[in-house]
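S1.2 Input.
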Amino acid sequence: MADYQVEQERPATTTTVIERRSGGGGMTLAILLLVVVVAVAAFFLISSETNKDNAVSSAASQVGEAASSVGDAAQDAAGAVKDQ
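S1.3 Output.
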């Protein structure tokens, strides 16, 4: 029998390099925008709570002034009745 020698060619080895590129700052811009929106919303929420507190304080002050006026009027009426 005859000996056969078979030669095979192997394909050249290739290396694939995949570069990952950043998004150009788009994600950073989106996060910064989100932080600004949250800060503005927090400011308005705190501001509205302060306005409510100021309104309650003002109403209580007005009630106190009205009670003082009623007390003064009662003393004046009592003095007028006493003088008769």
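S1.4 Remarks. The chain has a mean pLDDT of 80.
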